Amino acid sequence: MITKLKRIDWTLFTILLIMMAISLVVIYSATHSSSRFGGSTSKMAFYYLAGFIVFFVAAFVDYRLWIKYAKYIYIGGIALLLLVMIIGQTLNNAQGWLSIGGLSLQPAELFKLVLIISLSTLLAAKKKIKLLFWRDITPLLAVTFVPFALVMVQNDLGNALSYLIIMVALLWIGNIKYTQAIIFTTIAVAMVVVGIRSYVAYHDQIKTYLNDIKRDHWMERIDPWLMPDEATAKAIYHTRNAKLAIASGGLSGEGFMKGSSVQAERVPLTYSDSIFVVVAEEFGFVGAAVLLLLYFTLIHRLVLVSLECRERAGPYLIIGIVAMLLYQIFENIGMFIGLMPLTGITLPFISFGGTSLVMNMACMGLVMSIRIHNQLDTEEVSLEAGSRYTLN
Q1: What is the CA angle 110-114-117, rounded to 5?
Q2: Which pLDDT belongs to residue 391?
Q3: Domain contains 305
Q4: Is 391 a domain residue?
Q5: What is the pTM of this model?
Q6: Burial per residue of 68-85, b for 16 or more beta-carbon CB atoms within 10 angstroms, e otherwise
């Protein structure tokens, strides 16, 4: 235990502590005057405590154990997604929460890690051979699109898209043929371009269809991004006020607990999805830049661990985690500055949310497990080689 503890990446651990401090400060600023969310800071502190426990447990357990039982982990994850469709609670138009002992669990969040483990296991078994479409890529697509479809039915677009991002990232480093990569990229770009043009051209028909299937709130998220002039006042309210709040922060911000838009509650969900707006308005460009620098350093440390890894499954696991984090960071910040449509994606380690935080901390613990156990393996190989040399 002590040997493993010494091999923890304490730089990464320190970054997580700083993230915790930022999260608690910003959540307190966003909720201190709210009668409904006033206790969010203490709840987040509890979630962080649970998260660090999960971090160390995951770090000390050999990550290859998760690879060994990946099939059963995947089946369990699918079972949770099916269960939430039957008895799940609805929040913000998405039926994605299970209530367990007074605590809310979001299986779609947990399944990100499940998917990373499952895809990494399949790719590691290929042993550096070029991926063939029907033999290798098709099973990966099936493993991804089953949970994607289930989460889309739950009306959780943000988490569903994260599954596709994870799959694409792992395929990219999984020895996919260049011709296949070019074909898939061309198809994806064409689908995006055709989809955007079709949305603009057939806006009224799409609106009628979405109303019929009770998905009209999707229009309220896409219109402010693609057609702001056509968006209703209700649809544009969130993103418009968020942009104004970010702009008002200027260089150094309006000050802690002094954000005019945040404190007046003109921006919805400032304690969770919109928490970046609090950082930008109250701490300005400097505060936002510091937060982004922390994310950059975190990602850099993860990539370094993957480069040091001798075993094939480790890098796949880490790159899947990196892809997940990058997507969430880019989507969460991008949707408030007009780069991305509005979705229910949290800002990793900062936004309020127990399931999201504990899952992200488990991912960091998994990375530490890869680092610890690969270093131990390297030392054992070195000792064996030294012993043989001494005997000879």
Answers
A1: 145
A2: 46
A3: yes
A4: no
A5: 0.91
A6: eebeebbeebbebbeebe
